[in-house]
Amino acid sequence: MPVTLPDNLPAIEILKKENIFVMTQLRAKEQDIRPLKVLILNLMPIKIAAETDLVRLLSNTPLQIEVDFLKLSTHQSKNTPIEHMETFYKEFNDVRNSNYDGLIVTGAPVELMEFEEVTYWPEVSAVFDWARNHVTSTFYICWAAQAALYNAYGVPKHLMDEKTFGVFKHTINDRSFPLFRGFDDEFYAPHSRHTEIRREDVEKYADLEILAESDEAGIYIVVGRGGREFYVTGHSEYALYTLHNEYVRDLEKDLPISIPKHYYKHDDPSLKPISRWTGHGNLLFNNWINYFLYQETPFDLSQIKELANLTPTRE
Asked: Which superkingdom (predicted)?
């Protein structure tokens, strides 16, 4: 089944060229089923690229998903046309009284700042708080994972001596957890960050469990409230050339940056990157959608608040 998107969203034509099935809202209205409703708070600077990456993964499921995009009223994107934001994005006040099956919050280029120093921190933390009673399960990515852990639990982030940048091997700590059904013993995922969360800080909270990690990249996935929140420090949604584009961008800005690890063939930036994480990324999102949205969410979204203090089943 396809992902239902706003009419004329640029991602529609991009994904159609990749033979990925997407559906406009007009056609979706003709189908007599209840789609899953997923809200995406897109904090990435290049909005259209992030939209396309996430929709590509959401579309690889037999379930129909209706996607809304959310922007912050206290922050204006400098890299995406205003017309695009006004046409396809809602503000928090537009959805504050609504409920969603899922919420995805992307990373943001503000990780070197303290959380409270980020200009939109009050609004984004309000979204985090709202999600706990209005969303069945939330998927926090990279900076958002660190920010949400800090907002809910006070887990700090720590500046690293060197940026974690590349594609890294990971292992699973709890193979019985439904998020990992179908996974191999080892899998790869991209990371691109200057900061980290540490085991000793996470383990202080019985409500949190470290599900997957890497010897090189550290903690990868933490789960909260049995599946109501997932904190993912890497970028399983990245397209093949995203790390390359970040690498070239930083070189052009004369920023200190190393060649992304385990990414290019023979570690040579002149050669094509090796796709090591695409299968993992698709399976990760599919499992999240199936086991923590579709099988847990109430048919009547107004009942989500009743799930707030419940732990999802693990069958």
From this structure: Bacteria
Span 85-102, pLDDT tens digits = 889 999 999 999 999 999
Pairing of strands 208-214, 158-172: antiparallel
Place of tokens 């990373």: 107
User: Is 249 known to sit in a ligand binding site?
Assistant: yes
* Residue 275 counted as an annotated binding residue: no
CB-count burial class (<10 Å; 0-12, 13-18, 19+) for 249 = exposed
**Residue in 142, 191, 280, 296 annotated catalytic:** 142
Distance CA 192, CA 182 (A): 26
Residue 237 known to be catalytic:
yes
Q: At 312, is the secondary structure helix, strand, or coil? A: coil
Whether 261 is in a domain gets the answer no
How many other CB atoms are there within 10 angstroms of residue 84's CB atom? 16
Q: Is residue 142 annotated as a catalytic residue, yes or no? A: yes
Domain that holds residue 294: 3-160+195-240+278-307
Catalytic residue among 170, 191, 235, 280: 235
In a domain, residue 252? The reply is no
44 is a domain residue: yes
Q: How far apart are the C-alpha atoms of 191 and 236, rounded to whole Å?
A: 8
Q: Say which of 51, 213, 229, 237 is annotated catalytic.
A: 237
Q: 206 is written with which tokens?
A: 């019985």
Q: Are 71 and 85 in contact (CB under 8 A)?
A: yes
Q: Report which DSSP code applies to 169.
A: E
**Side-chain half-sphere of 252: how many Cα atoms within 13 Å?**
6
Number of domains comprising the chain: 1
Orientation angle between helical segments 47-58 and 278-287, nearest 10 degrees:
70
CATH number assigned to the domain comprising residue 138: 3.40.50.880
Tokens matching residue 124: 């984004």
Alpha carbons 142 and 140: distance in angstroms, whole number: 7
Q: What is the mean pLDDT of residues 44-65?
A: 90
User: What six digits make up the tokens of 45?
Assistant: 């600077």
